[in-house]
């Protein structure tokens, strides 16, 4: 068997020339090419937006939801909700590794995929019979395929699965924050994390500290979160502001930094309308990193122009080499960060 | 009179706390604060999308279009089409300069505003009586206000007004390309400009050359544009590809660069769906600069993650200090670039 395309285009059935994520249908054949990996699936984690749409559509009827998920996977060769466009991720055990796979995985390893289900060839063999259709956690049997450029991370032995998945879900953020903070400046930069109490926000705080930021400001929406931040102990200053109010946000940041904007502003608030405030809160020559999927490209571009703001604006790329390991390292280095995550995922540590 | 907010929030009438661009209504009072500049308006250039909407709505009735533009400006204190949200720019003569204005303008200078009409306080005094409502070029009399952080550029003596405006319209692109190319790499980077035959694309080519890129690839959509690029003479290689076909685009770029992706990929194609191709066309560790307003933030972020692409993605900020002068400099340094622009704006040079 020869090697495939590293991005998986050889698995695209239709339309011709598309990449797997944009494809209508993938070929989930369990036979692997020399650079592919086959995973024996144990559980699908459906994307929250996708599961919500399915539950609403079927009025909470679990059997109908299960039937539709099965039908989608059978028709598309992948789990991509046709309405929301979103997928999720999966957990499984490495089943077969092609001799030319560059992923470094070994048979028998328990892994989570860090690429979306929307581009992962998937074949279900148990009719999802163990799933009641009432939760986005889907026990499943079947096979999934990883390409040469897919990303998967071994699940750590020393961490509950749900916690590890919550960390993996946002692991791109701390890795990129570390990179931006440690390489961009001659002297240590100041950092403001907007939405610091969430998962990507709190990991970004830890990364900024770890990368020796001169001063780290946590911006949160209310006093409850402010108290959480003080207990977390990773921020030099904690400020409360509405991130969608540009003048209030920039005032909160510049006040915390004694009259200057932040050298690096990290946006982790998942609501629309934070672009202008983030730009205004950033010092001339500084950098804004947008991780929120609610970010509007035109709002950011035209906002910075309208404010005559000489700032660099980065689209938060979810992939940075070593991101999963780095996020786990931060989590283990900060017990109170782990506590915060357990609160977020509803676990009792 | 005291100074105002440098971003103009003191001119916002409603809603309270908004920035001028997001405001429903601005105060266009001609009396200026100490850091403001008053411009005597000569002509408005309505944004193309805005004018199209108005013309369609009124079935091409020029008098009705004029009446609506007048009503919008009277109601909002600025020209911002409530349907498209867009504005345009204006040309005028500097009328009064506050003693603490940082803009460096002098009374009597003829200027173009480089910030949008959507955030510029505007008062019309002639009822737009010289405008027939049949073109987006609106002869007008009245006053406009510039803030401390507004941007305006003197119109050059040695260039037709229409050409200068076309250059100003995209002048952020070459300035940012120069910055990225000249500061990001230890050795000179290779550059691919996607959509190189347009205004921002061709200026980006010139900037990449000027910044001593190792090799510059112009990617265009057809042979007509390819011939224009060869005549322009600013690219080392010219490639033809559909920018919305990710595999075709990346193949065209890597072929032109002998098997490697570009260190810097500049996206100037104003159609949706170019994100994944641009990411795939970029070398590991490289940079993608998105200038197209059709760029989708989630498509770029999730695309790079799905492709496990370690690339930095920049939101093209339309403001870089000195951008207007630099673009005029490039235009004057390359007579064939000027020819190309004249073709684009329909002028006969």
TrEMBL record, chains A, B:
Name of this chain's protein: L-erythro-3,5-diaminohexanoate dehydrogenase
Database matches in InterPro entries: KDD_N, NAD(P)-bd_dom_sf
Residue span(s) of domain L-erythro-3,5-diaminohexanoate dehydrogenase N-terminal: 10-156
Highest taxon listed in the record's lineage: Bacteria
């Amino acid at each position: 068997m020869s090697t495939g395309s590293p991005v998986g285009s050889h698995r695209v059935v239709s339309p011709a020339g598309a990449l797997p994520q944009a494809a209508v249908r993938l070929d989930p054949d369990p036979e692997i090419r020399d650079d592919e990996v086959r995973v024996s699936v144990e559980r699908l984690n459906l994307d929250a937006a996708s599961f919500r749409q399915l539950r609403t559509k079927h009025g909470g009827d679990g059997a109908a939801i299960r039937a539709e998920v099965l039908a989608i996977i059978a028709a598309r060769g992948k789990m991509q909700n046709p309405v929301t466009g979103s997928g999720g991720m999966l957990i499984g055990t490495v089943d077969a590794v092609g001799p030319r796979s560059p992923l470094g995985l070994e048979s028998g390893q328990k892994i989570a995929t860090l690429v979306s289900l929307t581009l992962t060839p998937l074949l279900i063999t148990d009719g999802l019979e163990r799933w009641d259709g009432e939760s986005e956690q889907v026990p499943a049997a079947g096979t999934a395929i990883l390409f040469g450029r897919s990303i998967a991370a071994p699940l750590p032995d020393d961490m509950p699965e749900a916690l590890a998945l919550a960390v993996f879900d946002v692991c791109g953020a701390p890795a990129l924050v570390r990179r931006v903070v440690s390489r961009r400046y001659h002297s240590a930069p100041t950092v403001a994390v907007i939405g610091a109490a969430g998962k990507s926000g709190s990991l970004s705080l830890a990364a900024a500290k770890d990368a020796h930021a001169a001063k780290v400001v946590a911006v949160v929406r209310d006093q409850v979160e402010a108290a959480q931040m003080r207990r977390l102990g990773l921020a030099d200053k904690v400020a409360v502001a509405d991130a969608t109010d540009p003048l209030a946000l920039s005032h909160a940041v510049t006040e915390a930094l004694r009259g200057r904007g932040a050298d690096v502003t990290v946006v982790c608030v998942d609501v629309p309308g934070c672009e202008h405030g983030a730009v205004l809160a950033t010092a001339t020559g500084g950098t804004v990193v947008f991780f929120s999927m609610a970010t509007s490209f035109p709002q950011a571009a035209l906002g910075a122009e309208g404010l005559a703001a000489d700032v660099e604006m980065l689209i938060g790329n979810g992939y940075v080499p070593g991101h999963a390991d780095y996020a786990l390292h931060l989590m283990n280095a900060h017990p109170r960060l782990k506590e915060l995550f357990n609160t977020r995922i509803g676990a009792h540590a």
